[in-house]
Design a protein that fits this description.
Largest sheet: 7 strands, mixed
Number of helices: 8
CATH topology: Spore Coat Polysaccharide Biosynthesis Protein SpsA, Chain A
Order of helices and strands: EHHEHEHEHEHEHEH
Distance between the termini: 41 Å
Helix content: 25-40%
Radius of gyration: 16 Å
CATH superfamily: Spore Coat Polysaccharide Biosynthesis Protein SpsA, Chain A
Shape: globular
Strand order of the largest sheet: 3-2-1-4-6-5-7
Number of strands: 7
Strand content: 15-25%
């Protein structure tokens, strides 16, 4: 049986992570003929997140070197060739994962859950974040010849066949730019998703936007 692996990077997500795990449509994926593997990669939570994870039916890994390294650690320790990444802050509705999976089944190498093409709840994405994301997405499209609407989405799926996690560039929140660089010459599709206000404090700061832009430029040139 083919395996779909869902990786959830976490860092102080006690208010949301249990709901995120419960929200993953495991039964629908199983009905499609897949075994579902759930993996959380914790970045050193100190708020009780680990206690919640350890009580749930999910494999827990540890990496305290930022989101990007956490994603790489997760990829090294999963069994699926079809991978989904979802942030652990509760802002991403998981109900579209089966539809995103269908895009991979049809031949896409990576599928993005696009917030900009879906429904964004009031207060979920501050104006500065929306503008910053649009600028970064425009830059990614211009540099790499792609046509996407949401570079920085925290919900995406991709094929892991032959992918070396250590070859995905980037640190911290640059991981989305690193994945875009890796998959830019392959078939990328998008599915509109709902985006809700996150639970808990955001870890993203303005300077992260400049780092993401620099990563896009660095990997291109």
């Amino acid at each position: 049986m083919d395996v779909v692996s869902v990786i959830i990077p976490t860092l102080n997500e006690k208010e949301a992570v249990e709901d995120v795990i419960d929200d993953i449509p495991k039964e629908r994926l199983q009905e499609k003929g897949y075994e579902v593997e759930l993996v959380a990669v914790d970045g050193g939570s100190s708020d009780g997140t680990l206690e919640i994870l350890n009580k749930s039916e999910i494999k827990v890994l540890h990496s305290d070197e930022g989101k990007a390294e956490g994603v790489r650690e997760g990829l090294k320790n999963v069994n699926g060739d079809l991978i989904f990444l979802i942030d652990g802050d509760g802002s991403y509705a998981c109900k579209k994962i089966p539809i995103m999976l269908e895009e991979l089944e049809k031949g896409s190498e990576m599928v993005l859950g696009s917030r900009l093409e879906g429904d964004i709840s009031n207060g979920a994405m501050p104006t500065k974040n929306k503008i910053g994301n649009r600028i970064l997405t425009w830059l990614a499209n211009r540099l790499y010849g792609t046509d996407i609407s949401d570079l920085c989405t925290g919900l995406r799926g991709f094929r892991c066949d032959g992918l070396n996690p250590e070859e995905i560039p980037g640190d911290g929140f640059e991981i989305e730019a690193g994945l875009h660089a890796v998959f830019s010459e392959k078939d990328i599709s998008e599915v509109s998703i709902d985006y809700r206000e996150r639970k808990g404090e955001s870890k993203l700061v303005t300077f992260d936007g400049f780092r993401i832009a620099f990563r896009l430029l660095r990997e291109k040139f």
